[in-house]
Amino acid sequence: MRSILPVLTVVAALLALWYAAVVPMNIKAALTDAERAGMTVQPEGAAARRDLSAIQLVLDNPSVISATFQQARPRLPAPHQVVVELWNTTAGQKVTSKRSLIYHGWVTLSATLLGFAIGTIAGGLLAVGIVHNRAMDMSVMPWAIASQTIPILAIAPMIIVVLNSIGVQGLLPKAIISAYLSFFPVVVGMVKGLRSPEAGQLDLLKTYHASAGQSLWKLRLPASLPYLFASLKVAIAAALVGAIIGELPTGAVSGLGARLLAGSYYGQTVQIWAALFGAAIAAAGLVGLVGWIERLVLTRMGMAK
Amino acid sequence: MILVLGALAFWVLAWLVNVAIANSGWAETRIGRLAVPILFGLTLLVVWEGLVRGLNVPGVILPAPTDIATRMASSTGILWQDFHQTFLRGALRGYAIGCAAAVLTAIAVDRIDFLRRGLLPVGSFLAALPIVGTAPILVMWFGFDWQSKAAVVVVMVFFPVLVNTVAGLQAADLAQRDLMRTYGAGYWPTLIKLRLPAAMPFLFNGLKIATTLALIGAIVAEFFGSPTMGMGFRISTSVGQLALDMVWAEIAVAAVAGSLFYGVVALIERQVTFWHPSQRG
Q1: What distance in Å separates the CA atoms of residue A241 and residue A257, rounded to the nearest whole number?
Q2: Which domain holds residue B131?
Q3: pLDDT 10s digits, B95-137
Q4: The domain defined by A101-300 carries CATH number 1.10.3720.10
Q5: What is the ipTM of this complex?
Q6: Distance from B186 to chain A by nearest Cα, in Å?
Q7: Do residue A283 and residue B19 have CB atoms under 8 angstroms apart?
């Protein structure tokens, strides 16, 4: 609780910095517009202004500063422009409309969640196998760890196009990329968690004559939950990035990634920023949701800190 | 069909060998620890090759490993050029700038407790966001060449390194700081002789995470516009031409570059934090 004031201060400072940066970033375009509208600006002519520094131009033309916050296609949109765009594309549109950010967000989110589910289940199963089979542990685990150092995201365009060419379209290709990205964190975290019971606890189960299955259900799985949730938070954020990147290569028409790409093609900067903040809100929401479930489960199990 | 059966037979055979090694005394030796994963990796390649050749999978869906190797051997010039553009120019410079900026910011933030308490939650929140989405904006600002790729990398590596360094600067415990105070050491000697060394395990944790992010950032930024070279450019255009052997060749280069980059940072960590329990024994 005592960090609320500092956090708010930092956020306010970032916003102030953003507003301050908007003026020099947009000043050249704003001056060109003002000149076309018949105002006199210093110096005249876009060619004369090209080599001057942005700060110099701002100081020479203080009357144009307010216009830098209202550009239609600014180099850097002001925060309130992004908020207005976010509001217009969420609350201002029907949810089914192609202009609604909620519609695009849901397209990305459904792929993320499907991929996350596939990746988590597959990762959990592999982790159980690794813990119970020594040969599997020795052969698979080094590769699972090494694969985390590889830029897996580079494979995304290929997966999309190849699956497209054999007739798999829509949700599934993106979900596969998400699954792939969330798979390895889950494997590594789960293996760590399944191994976390102490030797004494495992020995105790052995004296009870418990089978491997019983010690898995009654000791290893419950003990692994804190580790599992820690990796799930990493995995779901990675899954969202995977789904967004998965929308880039085919020039998808819907989804947050498609909004980013379309915005970058047509210079619609406000749309890019709105999509970016939409993605950020989605990521924060997903991580927050996993964190909430974590607290709920761990409290119920008496493991919460 | 023979090839498919051969591949499957090789799989079974290699698996039996691995099981035998894992359950024998070899498992504890260095050779055994190395042989098992290598044999497993080899098995994957052989099964891949056998299935692709045996089932006549077209090259536009999945090229065989030998095809990819041939492509790599025949286009080393292009691969080196792309590697130079994306890794040496974009990723490495961005990594250096981003990490240096993050460490300096962390030291500055650490002096003021108010700022630290405010920046840490915001920083860890930002580190979890899909920052790679800023790529189209930064490409628009810094142009198509390596500068925009380096900028994306800077933004991507900044927050993980910042959060880890700030946490690390808190790692030296109270008794140690008190000891420095009894020696009459001021802020700077304490920082350089006690707190920075104590922060190194945390800092290197951030630096290792950042190696992967750097390569991802540089490659993905090229999807949004680049000069006619670079690993991301080659991947997206080769996918468009259905030249999948080239795509796999680039991915192989990226994988090797990524693990080497990580390995080098891990090696430096070993030299710097030799005193830490995780590096001993």
Answers
A1: 9
A2: 72-279
A3: 999 999 999 999 988 888 888 888 888 887 787 778 888 888 8
A4: yes
A5: 0.81
A6: 27
A7: no
